[in-house]
Every structure is written in structure tokens, then in C-alpha cells.
Design a protein that fits this description.
Layout lengths: L7 H14 L6 E2 L1 H10 L6 H11 L7 E2 H11 L1 H15 L21 H14 L18 H5 L4 H10 L16 H17 L9 H5 L3 H17 L20 H5 L3 H15 L12 H12 L3 H10 L23 H14 L8 H6 L2 H14 L21 H12 L17 H9 L6 H4 L10 H18 L9 H6 L2 H23 L7 H14 L18 H10 L16 H17 L8 H5 L3 H17 L2
The structure holds 2-acetamido-2-deoxy-beta-D-glucopyranose (NAG) (4 copies).
The site of one 2-acetamido-2-deoxy-beta-D-glucopyranose has 5 residues, from helix 24.
Length: about 625
């Protein structure tokens, strides 16, 4: 299942990449050259770690990497590692020509995709949806063929996977299931894509047509995002307080809360490996790219995995988990692939043989190994919440709905880095600056922005300067910034950060409308009037007086508006009317939000926002619908 021979172009590219790392042109990559590369890319790594990486890549034990050894790694690893290498080099060299693979190739060219990912995702989906009656027409899919790409074409499997990753995202009643036509299929795909966007997937440049045609690289890219969101959902302190067991000396809960899910997973693996008396797997860089790039080199020989499984397997102390003893016999197996297979057989006994094949373990496929480890964590965290009196548990409030919505909105626009924690991840303002660009406020990246890596000394000063610049740009954007200073963003002051982020999201929403309306200014009043007018013209009775109108709580205005925009789309038998309980209102709101997405709007708001009439989110719902309504003609 390896992706075959390297093409001529790839080979040439490899040679070019190799040549760039090989500074003294002696035909080998030595430790100092790798070290230089990492340093220049902003990720200095201690010497012992560089040597460890070299050792892992070095087949003939001469402590340096020849081009042939370099090729083997690249071939084994598939494109993911190669891509990361390229990214590092891009940063170093400016643009490096990329041949053969997808990212820069133009329309119409063949996009390559990873067969390993296809195999892994198909097996995951087959199990996840095996009991879902709505998916039996395509399940189980054969992981060895391209049936995945035709199976996702009607949108049902995608909707189901989104809803599994973030439960209750999609109202069951809105999925078209029977007698599908091109139109109802398009609706399902809209629902899937807009819902994926609402849970934070970056879905720019993917359309319903791409999914209908089953374009492999786009389908796999979207599925990976959806699956990852589900796998990472509980790797978060407020959802699992036992993660505090990973606190190190001198760290506070706040420090730990700032870590990304990837970092927490690494910590977790380290924690168990240390307890097993096995060497640590990572201590160098928390940069996600590098976790993906190097960490699974350490897992490649499966021995760390054996220890990890042995540590986390149930010990029979909890009633619902009978004891499972990991058989370590395979640990001393000589052959890497056979050892990996033996390890995976033990994982299977824990119900965790997922995502990786022996070949993926041996090749260190970063994505799939990460998914494997995340799944192990989810099933068997094997952590105990510490009883430490110094820990301030009060901090662990979990994020509010509003915070999550803002975060999903940013991530769906593809900000980099991914925002895991709204305040902590905005403290250097880089994400905020990217959002300014999305609302067409020019950002002077070269002269006004400090970019990472930040110097060891004065890091915070650099970040603060960015924050000051972000506030300055807010004035250009004519935002209301009373009492907001760069320091507040840098401190992660919730109220003030939210105030700025909301104005960014609001402007973004209005800009979309304005573009549709040939540049005509749009404000709340214009939207309210449009809503009233559209409802009245369609003979619908609801109307709204403002986005605070308590009547909105029933969602009837939203549902009727959807039916006005796309006549016949609403099934009135499903709507609760009259004197509504909170539960009735929530049912209506769920239906309304999913329907809005199904007719093609990218709504980020949640059903609860309608029920509770949260004016900001209500505004975004009506604005999105107005945008959709204006496209009608
Ligand atoms: C989505 O998830 C919720 C909660 O798990 C479930 O009740 C609902 O039926 C699911 N909807 C779909 C479309 O599968
Ligand atoms: C690991 O990182 C910690 C904190 O940065 C440092 O104190 C420690 O010396 C490092 N350990 C090794 C083995 O480099
Ligand atoms: C955030 O800023 C507001 C307004 O200046 C202030 O009242 C509040 O105390 C600050 N919050 C924190 C946690 O510092
Ligand atoms: C429609 O919206 C406007 C808000 O600009 C409001 O003044 C008016 O009363 C609304 N119309 C109805 C019929 O409620």
C-alpha cells in the first residue's frame, strides 16, 4: 500500500531539497546541517535531539544521511512529510518550486492523494456509522478502492460525520434521504459544507460540486478536518480535569490550558512513557509542524507504543473495564513491520486498532499516527485528577458559546495558527491581523508586524507591539474601541478581546452583504427592514422589530423567512407553534439553523442563540439570510 515509485519530477525536487539542506555539498546531510535548517526555520533543536533524528533516518549507521536514505524516508512517508519539509524550506528560501503534488498545480491537473489516508478514513467511517440506518446504501465501503469518493457524493455520510464530531450540529430532519435528485443532493452537500464550516473546518475553495464529483484530495482534506475535530474534542482541560495530572513542576493550570491538543497529547504520551521508565519522546519544540514532522519518527519502531499500551490498558480497578494485559512478546521482534503488527494486535485487544497500518507506523505517517494516539487517549486516558490544593480549579470554566462561535468562525477562514483557545492564541495579535485582511483593511506585514520566532528576551514586548498595531488598525476600520488598548489584547482580557473580535465578525458579515448589493452600505436597520419586507411580500405573518425582539425566540420569523427565500423548503408539520415550551423553541431553532445552512448560508450561530435571542448572533443569522435572498434573483 505504499504509493509506488517516486516520479521523475519528484525525484528532481527531492534532489533540490536535499541540495538545499546539504550546505557543504558533500553529498550528505550531517547533524549540523539539519540543526542549521531547523534553526533558520525558527525551530532550534538541542543537539541530542538532532542526533536522535539523524539516527532514526540513517540506515547504514554512518551518522549522516545520504541522498538514498533521504529518498527512502520521503518515499515511505508519502507526501505529508515531504510537504512539511517543503514548507520549512519555503520559509527559508522564499518560494521553492513544487512539482507533482496538489498545492500549486493549476486547474485540471491530476491531484495526488494519500492512499493511506483513504484506507484509514474509510475504516473509521465504516465503524462510526455502521449502525446508522441512513448510511446503509453506501456502507461498508471498501477501503482498498475509491468507493469512498463516490459514497460521499450524496452528502449524507458527510453530514453524519460532522454531527458525530460535534453532536447536534445537524438536525436529522433536514437531511434529504429518499429519492434523491440533483437538487436535493446539492442541498445535502450545502448542509454538510456549511455545517463543517460552522464547527471550524476551513472549507474555502471547496464547493458542493467538488464533493459530488468526489475529488479525492478535497474529500480527504475535508474528512481529516472533520475527524480531527471529533478526536480532539475532549483533549481539553475543561472537558477532562484529569489532564491536570500532566502539570509539570512550577506550572500553573493556566499554562496547561494554553497548550494545543497536539501538545497535550505529546505530554500525555510522555507522561505514560516516563512512568514506564522508557525514554522521553519530545522536549524540543511545541510547534505543530514539528510535532507532525518528527515525533512519529520516535514511535516508528513501535516500542514506545508497546509501553504506552501497557501503561494505559485497563487494570481491572474499574468495574466497567475488565483487566486487559498487554502481551509484550512482540516487543523483541526483530523486523520493524512485524513488530508494528504485533503492537497493533495488542491495540486491537483494546478496541483501538484504528487509523494506522504497520506500514504507517514504520513510515511514521504523522497525521495517521496522531489520530491513532488521539484515539488511544480518548478511549484510555489512564489519568487521575490530582488532589493538589494549590490548583485553582475555578479557572476551568470551559468556553462560552460565544467564544466557541468566534473561534469556529476564525478557523473556518483558515487563520494560521489554528485557534484552540480564543484569548491565549490571540495574544500576539497575528490572528487578529489576518482577520483585518479578511475585512479588507490592509496590514503592513513587513514594517509593522513582528513575526515568530520571537526572540527569547522581550518576546512579550514583540507581541504587545503587534497588539498595539491591531488596535491602531481598528481606528482605520472605524471600530468603536473605547477603553481597548493593545495591552488588553496582550493580557487576554476577555471582555475587551471579545469586543474587538465581534466587530471584526460583524464587519465581515456586512461586507459580504455589501458586495452582493453592489457596494451599498448595510446596517442593522436595513437588514431588519429587508426581513420585514421579504416576509410581508411572501404573505408571511411574522415580523421583527429589532435583533432583540423577544418573538425571535420561537424561530418562526427565521423559518418563514427561509420559506420566503426558497418557497416550499420548510416542512410546516415539523414546526411547533402556539404557546411554546423552551424545548419546543429549541426544536424549532435547531430546524431553523440547519435549514439556513441547507439553503446555502454559512451560519455560525447556534440554536440556543435564537432561543435566548442573543442580538449579535441573531444579527448574523438574518444578515446571512439576506445575502442568500439577494442572490435569489
Ligand atoms: C446528531 O447528533 C445528535 C446528538 O447525538 C442526534 O440526536 C441526532 O440524531 C444526530 N443527527 C444526525 C443527522 O445524525
Ligand atoms: C526539557 O525542557 C525543559 C523546559 O524547557 C528544560 O528545563 C529541560 O532541561 C529540558 N530537558 C532536556 C532533556 O533537554
Ligand atoms: C478587562 O478590562 C475591563 C475594562 O477595562 C476591566 O473592567 C476588567 O477588570 C478587565 N478584566 C480583567 C480580567 O482584567
Ligand atoms: C420592520 O422593521 C422596521 C425597522 O427598521 C420597524 O420599524 C418596523 O416596525 C418593522 N415593520 C413591522 C411591520 O414590524
Amino acid at each position: 500500500k505504499m504509493s509506488g515509485k517516486i516520479s521523475k519530477e519528484d525525484m528532481e525536487e527531492m534532489r533540490e531539497v536535499f541540495g538545499k539542506i546539504d550546505l557543504d555539498n558533500n553529498g550528505y546531510i550531517c547533524d549540523y546541517e539539519l540543526s542549521e535548517l531547523l534553526k533558520e526555520a525558527g525551530h532550534p533543536v538541542p543537539g541530542y535531539m538532532v542526533r536522535e533524528i539523524i539516527q532514526k533516518l540513517d540506515r547504514n549507521m554512518d551518522n549522516k544521511i545520504s541522498f538514498e536514505e533521504f529518498l527512502i524516508i520521503q518515499e515511505l512517508r508519502g507526501s505529508a512529510i515531504a510537504k512539511t519539509f517543503r514548507k520549512v524550506l519555503n520559509r527559508k528560501e522564499g518560494i521553492l518550486a513544487i512539482g507533482g503534488t496538489s498545492e500549486l498545480s493549476s486547474e485540471g491537473t491530476q491531484h495526488s492523494f494519500s492512499e493511506e489516508e483513504r484506507y484509514a478514513f474509510v475504516n473509521w467511517i465504516n465503524i462510526a456509522l455502521k449502525d446508522d440506518p441512513d448510511c446503509q446504501h453506501v456502507l461498508p465501503m471498501d477501503p482498498n478502492t475509491d468507493s469512498l469518493f463516490t459514497s460521499v457524493g450524496d452528502g449524507i455520510v458527510l453530514c453524519k460525520m460532522v454531527n458525530l464530531s460535534v453532536p447536534d450540529t445537524i438536525d436529522e430532519r433536514t437531511i434529504n434521504k429518499k429519492k434523491l435528485t440533483p437538487f436535493t443532493i446539492q442541498e445535502n452537500l450545502n448542509l454538510a459544507l456549511n455545517s463543517a464550516s460552522a464547527i471550524g473546518c476551513h472549507v474555502v475553495n471547496i464547493g458542493a460540486l467538488d464533493l459530488k464529483e468526489g475529488k479525492p484530495h478535497l474529500v480527504l482534506g475535508l474528512l481529516w478536518q472533520i475527524i480531527k475535530i471529533g478526536l480532539f474534542a475532549d483533549i481539553e482541560l475543561s472537558r477532562n480535569e484529569a489532564l491536570a495530572a500532566l502539570l509539570r513542576d512550577g506550572e500553573t493550570l493556566e499554562d496547561l490550558m494554553k497548550l494545543s491538543p497536539e501538545e497535550l497529547l505529546l505530554r500525555w504520551a510522555n507522561f505514560h512513557l516516563e512512568n514506564a521508565g522508557w525514554k522521553k519522546i519530545n522536549n524540543f519544540s511545541s510547534d505543530i509542524k514539528f510535532i507532525y514532522l518528527f515525533i512519529f519518527i520516535i514511535f516508528q519502531d513501535s516500542r514506545a507504543y508497546f509501553h504506552l499500551l501497557n501503561q494505559i490498558s485497563p487494570k481491572g480497578t474499574e468495574e466497567d473495564h475488565p483487566r486487559i494485559d498487554i502481551n509484550m512478546a512482540g516487543f523483541s521482534e526483530k523486523d520493524d513491520l512485524k513488530r508494528a503488527e504485533a503492537m497493533l494486535q495488542q491495540a486491537d485487544r483494546l478496541g483501538c486498532r484504528q487509523f494506522v497500518t504497520p506500514a504507517d507506523v514504520v513510515s511514521g505517517n504523522p497525521k495517521l499516527n496522531l489520530a491513532f494516539v488521539a484515539n488511544l487517549f480518548n478511549k484510555y486516558p489512564a489519568l487521575t485528577k490530582p488532589e493538589n490544593e494549590d490548583i485553582n480549579w475555578g479557572l476551568l470554566e470551559g468556553e462560552t458559546r460565544e467564544e466557541r462561535t468566534f473561534r469556529n468562525w476564525m478557523n473556518s477562514l483558515g487563520v494560521n495558527p489554528h485557534v484552540n483557545h480564543l484569548y491565549a492564541d490571540l495574544q500576539d495579535a497575528l490572528v487578529i491581523l489576518q482577520l483585518y485582511e479578511k475585512i479588507k483593511i490592509p496590514v503592513d506585514w513587513n514594517n509593522k508586524v513582528n513575526k515568530p520566532p520571537y526572540p527569547k528576551l522581550g518576546t512579550n514586548m514583540k507581541k504587545l507591539e503587534n497588539c498595539n498595531y491591531a488596535v491602531e488598525l481598528g481606528k482605520t476600520a472605524k471600530f468603536s474601541l473605547v477603553g481597548i488598548g493593545g495591552q488588553d489584547l496582550n493580557d487576554g482580557n476577555a471582555t475587551l478581546t471579545l469586543a474587538l473580535v465581534w466587530q471584526l465578525m460583524r464587519r465581515y458579515t456586512l461586507n459580504v452583504l455589501q458586495e452582493l448589493g453592489d457596494g451599498q452600505k448595510v446596517n442593522d436597520e436595513i437588514i431588519v427592514n429587508w426581513v420585514n419586507k421579504t416576509l410581508a411580500e411572501a404573505g408571511k405573518s411574522p415580523k421583527i422589530s429589532s435583533f432583540k425582539d423577544k418573538e425571535i425566540s420561537s424561530s418562526l420569523a427565521v423559518l418563514e423567512l427561509i420559506d420566503a427565500i426558497q418557497p416550499g423548503s420548510i416542512n410546516y408539520e415539523l414546526i411547533k407553534t402556539g404557546c411554546l415550551s423552551e424545548e419546543d423553541k429549541l426544536e424549532n431553532a435547531k430546524y431553523a439553523i440547519s435549514m439556513a445552512r441547507k439553503i446555502g448560508t454559512r451560519v455560525y450561530a447556534l440554536p440556543e442563540d435564537l432561543v435566548e435571542v442573543k442580538p449579535k448572533m441573531v444579527m448574523t443569522v438574518f444578515a446571512c439570510l439576506m445575502g442568500r435572498g439577494m442572490k435569489r434573483v
